[in-house]
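COURSE: Structural Biology Practicum
ASSIGNMENT: Worksheet 4, Part C
STUDENT ID: 0417
INSTRUCTIONS: Below are two proteins. For each, the amino acid sequence is given first, followed by its structure token string. Answer the questions at the end about the second protein only.

PROTEIN I
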Amino acid sequence: MNKNYILLAVLLLVLAGGLLLIPEKNNHPQLSPEDLMWDVVQPSKFVNTDQVAKMIIEKDPLLQIIDVRPDYDYAEFTLPGAINIPLDSIATPLADQILNTEDLNMVFISDDDIKADQAWVLAKRMGHNNIYVMKGGLNNWMSTIINPEPPSQSAPVTETELYEFRKGASMYFTGAEITISEPKQGVEITRRKKSTAVEGGC
């Protein structure tokens, strides 16, 4: 047998033995693979763009949006109040500290929902709860909230009401202010000056 192979085998055994002596650092009880697989397929991990828009408009104090795209994409366009934790930084101590904030509902966003879904899996594996993915991501946000498509004239009332909400939300996010008035049902829109409107897409 080659001497180099013997030396390499001995070195690997020494390194493996050394790993056994290193104390295990585990800040969170990690989810088992079986439990993780079960959670991955649950639709309850998703929130839709309408729910996120409503929470932002109502200034929900429990909402924390986490944009997992690279910082240059985040700098170009994101949702109000979102913080940037790129996907490759989800497992860092700083991200772990943010995700470990009690009582907040963390909503991961990306261009679509693929990277956000990956961030969700990593965070869930690390033992975090109250984490969600915005279904369809920012591309879906642009087509449902910023540029909603009007329903057909024969559409049910629920579709028309949803469109009215989206129209109001679109005005809010592109430079209008929405107030809910109690006497009338619906959304009242008040224009306000805004230095720059949200432009473009993802």
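PROTEIN II
(use this one for the questions)
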Amino acid sequence: MKRIRVLHITPHLGGGVGKALSCLCQQSVLTNSIIQHVIVCLEQPEKKDFINSIVSIGIQVEVSPTPRMLNKLITEADIVQLEWWNHPTLFRALCSCSLPTMRLLIWCHVSGIENPYIPESLIDSAHQFVCTSKCSLQANEIAKRIAAGAKSISFISSGCGVEKLPTPIFNYRKEISAVYLGSLNSAKIHPEFVQFAAAVDLPDFFITMIGDLQGSNQLSTLCEIEGKPDLLKFVGYQSDIVTSLSEADLLIYLLHPSHYGTAENALIEAMAMGIIPIVLNNPAERHIVDHEVTGFIVKTPTQLAQVVKRLSNDKDELNKMKRKAARASRASYNSALMEQRLSETYKSIIKIPKEIFNFKKLFGSNPSAWFLASQGKKNSFNKNGTVTIANKAYQPILFEQTKGSVFHFRHYYPENKLLKAWSNALEKMK
């Protein structure tokens, strides 16, 4: 069969998308797949780990290509795969000039259930729109299209690579050990994380917090208020998660109800290591954790405390569930399965003729319009430069400096008057 050349266009190769594309490319090379991957990074990387690993296996990676080079790569590609989230550089690359004809596949790395929302025009235009979490299928823009019989929407998790983790060893330890793994910023972690954790009434219980320290001071203050200053132990970002997780029994993974995550690599990696997750009933997590089988879904601090105490008192149940969590994660989130499903998708759309896509018509012609494209129909940003927010606590992502926020867009387009006005309005609300 003829080789299929897939061009991935991504703002960068950091975090979850970097891991997903690295695993995809490695698996394709390992199996001598007919799929030939080429990757475009629209901006210079902060960290080169994933780029280096991809280049080392012979995959072409172009960083910050000129418009002429991007057009050439699109022309040569059989399929263009946009690694989609509302990053400022992605809109600029798509809308600043006319692009050649293409077969368009979207791999969407945000859930779309909450802000940032998925532009409806993007869902309707793509030859195939692929969600990275099953939870996205319940997003309003997607659910109504599925109900109407849309065939061009599917799901392939970008969670992968757990097969590279060592097989967990299940030891009986006297004291139960808990960790949190991931971002500590207010758009990701639950605002009552400390109150939940403080409900656990076990001697010397604490949670090791693994992740960048941004947000740690606020959490420490809340621990002081609860009268448990040693409840959380902050160790910062750890490059070697295997060592960091090797002694843990529980993952206390309580995320903000409006968080933007999909694949939740931290969650599936911990499960693959034989760590029992305790999560809230958020869309992404409940599609990963099978309650009382591979972990627990709790709603209140009391429920969390009861689960921790129950597992602490019953080490047989603890180890049985750890084994189930590891098996489930390794069966569902391995690179071979992800590569197989994406390859099947490529082969299914290769017969579709290439088309011209007018992204300027889809998203608008200027940076403020591009920003609004992912804010939904009832967005908080008014055309007169003011901002109206009904519930600030429920939308912490609006105050992020990155993650496709108005501050993120203003950083890239400082001369845009509306972005400047919205940013200033939000600054006054902090």
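ANSWER KEY EXCERPT:
Q1: The longest strand covers residues 4-10.
Q2: The longest helix spans residues 315-332.
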